[in-house]
Amino acid sequence: MLTKIQITGNITVETGMHIGGSSAFAAIGAVDSPVIKDSRTNLPIIPGSSLKGKIRTLLAKEMNKETVSVPDDDCEEIGRLFGTARKDRPHASRLLFSDMQLANEEELREAGLQSLTEVKFENTINRATAVANPRQIERVVRGSVFNMDIIYNVEKEEEVIADFKTFAEGLRLLQYDYLGGNGSRGYGKIVFNDLKATVVTGTLDDKLIQECNELLSL
Q1: What number is the average pLDDT over the span 196-209?
Q2: Domain total for the chain?
């Protein structure tokens, strides 16, 4: 029987976060670099691909024994969790990431915010010519909370704990890094809250799911 574990929780944005959207049809005077938004609500989102890619990149830096040029060459622990197309060991991702929607719009509105994003004006200076290059970067405001929803497909019970250790380590690393762009300038610091693993399809030993939740709580 196919067993699936749902991993839920919240991502709280602690510093302005920029995950870029398209500016192909921006009007004159519009923001140079907008954030990605949900087309139905026009509210900012965190794409699942952004979270997955960042966690995988951080784990690769920590766990790979040598530098690899393509993700398919990541170590086995990363490949079986995030997927690999290597011909000698192809494997679909066991983790399925959903796009994350803004969860606390009402709270932010009650705090007096008319817009749920902010525009940060930045400037670069050409050292040779002293010519300024100003630009406007849109950011998700500090205090925004996004609902996280990830599905883990159980393939081998004996590998569940090892996979959750790897995943939990990726979350820990991300909290000491940044999500989105311009992290070296203070953007994109996040924290994970209320993480929980729940069996939603099939069955799994209660002790295993308890240990999974203990790993997430760390």
Answers
A1: 96
A2: 1
- Domain encompassing residue 161: 3-16+45-108+143-217
3-state helix/strand/coil string of 60-129: HHHHCCCCCCCHHHCCHHHHHHHCECCCCCCECCCEEECCEEECCHHHHHHCCCCCCEEEEEEEEECCCC
120 in a structural domain? no
CATH number at residue 59: 3.30.70
Mean per-residue pLDDT of the chain: 91
Rounded to whole angstroms, the Cα distance separating 80 from 178 reads 24
CB 9 within 8 A of CB 194: yes
pLDDT tens digits along 124-141: 777 888 777 778 999 999
Q: Is the pLDDT of residue 102 over 70?
A: yes
